[in-house]
Write a structure and sequence with these properties.
Layout (H helix, E strand, L loop, with lengths): L3 H8 L9 E2 H14 L4 H5 L3 H9 L6 E2 L2 H32 L11 H30 L2 H20 L2
Antiparallel strand pairs: 1-2
Helix pairs in contact: 2-4, 2-5, 4-5
Length: 164
């Protein structure tokens, strides 16, 4: 399981599509923007704001909420109780990231973004293949027939997987 929501969804069909947010993330983003205002545009370009936020969030308490009212309450609590700590931690994060701006790492990608990227690659491969064989396809099959053929092949493939 990748997240608590995945776990809960696997345990019950009655889990509503509700989410949660960490108000501290919102406060850290606001503070990063505020502190970046004093930098030149060239300096800003070399700072990975995700790295700054990650560094800071790993050193600050979480303030989760699952409702609009809860997120407002947690933000107010964070501003009241942790604003100086947020400011100091973001400043520290910026200093560290500025010292080593070119970190060589592979960024995390959401499952949705990964799926979109895979779909783009598959479509590009299909487009490349179609381009190579376009004259042969056009001479033998209309584009409408070609689409129907692809649908038929996919359906048959799915049926074979179901009955394995």
């Amino acid at each position: 399981m990748d997240s608590i929501l995945d776990y809960l969804a696997s345990q019950s069909d009655k889990v509503i599509s509700q989410t949660h947010k960490n108000a501290m993330e919102l406060l850290v983003v606001e503070e990063i923007k505020k502190q970046l205002e004093s930098l030149s545009s060239e300096e800003k370009d070399f700072i990975n704001q995700i790295e700054v936020a990650t560094y800071a969030l790993n050193r600050l308490p979480s303030l989760y909420a699952s409702s609009e009212e809860g997120i407002s309450w947690q933000k107010r609590k964070g501003q009241k109780e942790y604003q100086q700590q947020i400011t100091d931690t973001v400043r520290e994060a910026l200093e560290i990231i500025e010292k080593e701006p070119a970190r060589f790492s592979t960024p995390l990608v959401s499952p949705e973004q990964q799926e979109i990227q895979e779909a783009k690659e598959a479509l590009q491969e299909l487009l490349d293949w179609l381009w190579m064989y376009q004259s042969e396809i056009q001479n033998k099959v209309s584009w409408r027939e070609f689409i129907d053929l692809v649908k038929q092949i996919v359906s048959q493939s799915l049926e074979k997987q179901i009955f394995r």
